[in-house]
User: Fold these one by one.
Assistant:
Number 1:
Amino acid sequence: MTYEFKGFIPVVHESAFIHPQAAVTGNVIIGKDVYIGPGAAIRGDWGGIVIEDGCNVQENCTIHMFPGVTVRLEAAAHIGHGAIIHGAHIGPNCMVGMNSVVMDNVILGAESIVGALSFIKAREVIPPRSLVLGNPAKVIKRVSDEMIAWKTKGTQLYQSLPADCHSHLKPCEPLRAVPADRPRQEALYETWEAIRRAK
């Protein structure tokens, strides 16, 4: 789960949760209420990685860099399933969509949203509150107050997930049939499309 490399041992706040199937290596600092999902590879072997308070790095994400670079995820950054962050700086309260790639020396401005499957090429500087889509990615419009409020609510779910995992996640044997009293899961969040349709 966590690995020392050349004298660097990851520093992880006690409130953070790193899934046992994630790998965190070397010069990595992880703040409060951070969630690291299964399959994530956070590899601080050639440079540093700082993941500030309230961030989440979801399943199968990769964070790495060229030698001598420090990758930083500022507070409440939200990195969707399968995304790659390579040598970039992700601003506070940003969201990087599923399977997106953010390349070396990119600066993603505060409260920006990167759409799923986008590719941000090296050395791009994205202004704050930008909605970024495509391959190569382009800024298509400014992120609205409503959109950032929706993103922030989703990130808050992930900020509560580490405590839930510490309390409730445990290995188990599977059931062989669905029990009659199986509980219903509560609806905690709506998609952006559902919110827009409701208006």
Number 2:
Amino acid sequence: MTRQRILLVEDEGDIRHFIRVALEREGMTVFEAANAWEARIAAASRQPQLVIMDLGLPDGDGKDVIRDLRGWSSAPVLVLSAREHEQEKVAALEAGADDYLAKPFGVPELLARVRAHLRRANLIGMGGATLSIVRFGDVQVDLATYEVSRNGAPVHLTPIEFRLLAALIRGYGKVITYRQLLLDVWGPGYSDRPHYARVYMNNLRQKLEEDPARPRHLVTELQVGYRLAGICRGEATLSAAPPVPSERGLETRYQA
């Protein structure tokens, strides 16, 4: 029987150790990450079937990692955090987390939640992986390695631009409202600022559309939001792990 793959993102070594021991006793394979950088690399290379995520990481907020992960994977994300305020829980769930367990917690409850999320994932057949290569027009997007190219030439997107593009890809086939995009890309504090979406959508069109004034793919639905048109999936398979981005390359792509 194939062992289930868990990515454990936690900066405190003692907590990582006892969670890992508990999961391995359940017959699971555990990959560890101590910060946001390691988490992004491990998620792309290991294709976990479930992610356990701490929010307070030394090099960033775990919610940002969750948003990036949601750009290309549907693996369940269980947040472990000492932040108990309701707004923190809401923010983590709106970033794409599936569940939230406050520290301190009991190992039996943690294991029960892990097993429940894995059962649901198996029932809907997602297994934590998804096709990561997406194409529309002359643009190719690798959602796992954050690489974008047009006519074979690399295109630099800022983190916000990439998140906006990934949100449109995830919602392909439907109109995504301004509010939905603002919550997904910027967070709950920006839900009443639609001009943010307009500015960054214009930036995306300048970089990705042949004629930005008459976009064929990044389409506006007046007074509602945006939709992505003309998408096709790449030839990746569910079992294939995306290539691991180089440290220099990912740092460059994550510059504002």
Number 3:
Amino acid sequence: MNTLDKFIKLGTAGEGTYGIVYKAKNKVTGKSVALKRIKLEKFSKDDQTEGVPSTAIREISILKGLRHSAIIELQDVMYTSDKLYLVFEYLDLDLKRYLDGTMKPMHKELIRSYLKQLCEGLAYLHTHRILHRDIKPQNLLVDKEGHIKIADFGLSRCFSVPTKSYTHEVVTMWYRAPELLLGSKLYTNGVDIWSLGCVMAEMLIKRALFPGDSEIDQIFKIFKILGTPNEEMWPGVATLPQYEVSFPQWKPSDLKLHVSFNDAEEEEFMKMMLVYDPFVRKSAKQLLTVPYLRKAKLTTPNMRPFPDVSEEY
């Protein structure tokens, strides 16, 4: 059994769905790793998960079988008497902290590069019948070389075809697809694509496109920009549990009034993801064939926002 003795904690890197993440260094290899610590004493001893939260079990079981350049690598799992440690490859910071730390707009080629990598990662996940269900800037990790990786699989799950009934209480609200907000329990990989569209908007305007403070406020913020959906633009929307015929009727507005696009290709790409009807929304595999992404190349981000976590913990 591996122990923590071979790691030196260097500092706190952040917090995940269910635990603190530390930056650490492997004494043998000298390489940096991220240690996600999960306390076990919060869970009853007679629980069927034996004190390990279901989110941790889910993340471990999913990540153990995944190998992709755009998905965080789970390198090891270690136990102590009251804690569980997940050992991940280390990346410098998450996309949210990167956006908050840069004064200038993101370069359009960096956005394009990030989106291609994320679409490749999502296509890989969806091909393996895995929904991430929590795509947001805080769960996307970036490094100085221009790589971006999908992390935090605590809310992920495998899906089947035809789709089963799942809880709609997933995805951080600002990035939650309209079918989830309207109570659909039958959904598939389109929920991740909608979230990616919201992330793209945030890369362009440095803030959330739909920053709702409640579910109904979230719904209305989407409607005010994209228009109130009807049966013509989204067949079956009126049958969703949370849909109300009394919803205010907003007309779609021009996305350029809300997002500063670099060019028409960029705008069209976002529109492919922010589509109401999940059956019309492009899949990650389809998005990879769009000319906008075919031009993508690895682009190095501005180095200044990358902090060096060097203090001894």
Number 4:
Amino acid sequence: MFTGIIEEKGKVESVDQQGEAIVMSVYAPTILTDVKQGDSISVNGVCLTVTSFTDTAFTVDMMPETVRATSLRDVQAGSEVNLERAMAAGGRFGGHFVSGHVDGTGTIINKKAEDNAVYYEIEIDPVLRPYLSLKGSVAVDGTSLTIFGVTQSTFTVSIIPHTLQETVIGSKEAGDPVNIECDMLAKYVDELLKHKFRMTDNPAPVTEDFLNNHGFK
């Protein structure tokens, strides 16, 4: 489990393509102070397992599904990546619940500065739209962000200077891909409602009265 608060920008040292799988090494001296083999680290929002490490770098394996489903397929030696260690049980929770299980990739289609913020408009697969809500949470390349605008095929986030400096999104431009993880709670509610409908011969439409009657008040 992660929070979406990026701890370090790492730099990819090597990418070893093995069929559809990838073995990747990342330079990251800051977050390796307490690392152990088998630990989980979020790399651009993707939960990966540390297979080996030194004082300054760690190595992870990416299976074909991860390569196909995330933007990590495009990283090269020298690419910067967002890094976050799995949340400690007694740690401060600064972002939102982030699992590191990416729902899909999006594409930045517009980047606009306004006063001290930069607005990013990101195009997504419409299948993700039900899990995005105005002022709700979303993880973009593993960074916990608040949604300030949403349409059927895009959403907009506003990035403050600190986040621009400390995460990889500050260097991204229109046309660049990003990993998207939608709000976990929204996905669970959706799945529960779908399950209830599957168990009902004549499912009722989801109305305000239906939600009130089933505990969503």
